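Milestone 3.1: sequence recovery, worked example.
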């Protein structure tokens, strides 16, 4: 299926297209959960939870709950998130009868059993340069357009050099980030895959964005990869089930986070490749690189 040339015009928004009072009125009768999957993010998860809670729970009631899913952290993520005001669950302790595997997608799938929102907003726990407008921006299409089922955020992603020495070197030159150089797996793996295998998704700026929102009624019907392929798989499966206009994207401005090593990114890229090829009907040579997928939550 070729890309719909008018899709971007119809379904691309900016975070300030809706005012908070307007969204609060549109939200009437709908419950919203913010889910933050986290693994060893004690340094940043407290700020994420605190700022969102103060702006969107304590000041206005745009969110009904903030839930952190702790995925096998070995640091103080659980305690920091709890102290910041989130409801925190360890992924391994949610529905123990279903077992547990480590992974971002697993944490997100498990969140369906401990949240109540009809709409679920996902945010990464490692955000460094961001603002609370991310949440209302993602909610805008879902609260105002009933045909929209899933909303992806996109943003300028500066590359923050990893390691104290690298950061110090750039700071000595008056440089703190490299604009538009973040999202290495997105640009080198996901977007080329989409152009080749799923061209209908070509209008999406950042298909792997960790900031996205979805209707519970959809998410609980999807097969969910337990690792990093959860975002791409969700997009492909949503369009196949509901058509391209079930997707929308929102410009959230600027977002920076802690970048991973190339070794870690290689594993992420392999998972995304395997999930994409499976959905395109292309067999892979080894089952070892294919992450397990959870069945639709409604089935268990």
């Amino acid at each position: 299926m070729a890309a719909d040339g008018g899709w971007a015009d119809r379904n691309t928004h900016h975070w300030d297209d809706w005012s908070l009072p307007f969204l609060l009125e549109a939200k009437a009768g709908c419950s919203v959960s913010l889910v933050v999957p986290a693994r060893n993010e004690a340094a940043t998860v407290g700020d994420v939870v605190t700022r969102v809670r103060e702006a969107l729970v304590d000041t206005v009631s745009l969110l009904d709950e903030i839930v952190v899913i702790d995925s096998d952290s070995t640091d103080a993520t659980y305690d920091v998130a709890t102290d910041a005001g989130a409801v925190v669950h360890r992924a391994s302790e949610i529905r123990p009868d279903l077992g547990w595997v480590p992974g971002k997608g697993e944490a997100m799938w498990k969140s369906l059993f401990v949240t109540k929102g009809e709409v679920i907003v996902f945010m990464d726990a490692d955000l460094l340069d961001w603002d609370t407008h991310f949440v209302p921006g993602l909610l805008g299409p879902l609260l105002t357009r009933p045909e929209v089922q899933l909303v992806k955020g996109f943003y300028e992603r500066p590359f923050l050099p990893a390691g104290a020495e690298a950061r110090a070197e750039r700071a000595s030159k008056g440089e703190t980030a490299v604009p538009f150089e973040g999202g290495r797996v997105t640009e080198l793996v996901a977007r080329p895959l989409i152009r080749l295998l799923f061209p209908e998704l070509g209008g999406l700026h950042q298909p792997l964005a960790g900031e996205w929102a979805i209707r519970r009624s959809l998410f609980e019907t999807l097969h969910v990869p337990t690792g990093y392929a959860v975002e791409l798989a969700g997009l492909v499966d949503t369009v196949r089930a509901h058509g391209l206009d079930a997707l929308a994207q929102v410009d959230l401005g600027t977002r920076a986070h802690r970048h991973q090593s190339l070794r870690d990114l290689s594993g992420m890229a392999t998972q995304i490749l395997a999930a994409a090829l499976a959905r395109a009907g292309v067999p892979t040579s080894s089952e070892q690189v294919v992450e397990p997928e959870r069945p639709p939550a409604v089935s268990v």
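Residues 162-168, 175-182 have pLDDT under 50 and may be disordered. The chain has one domain: 7-157+190-279.
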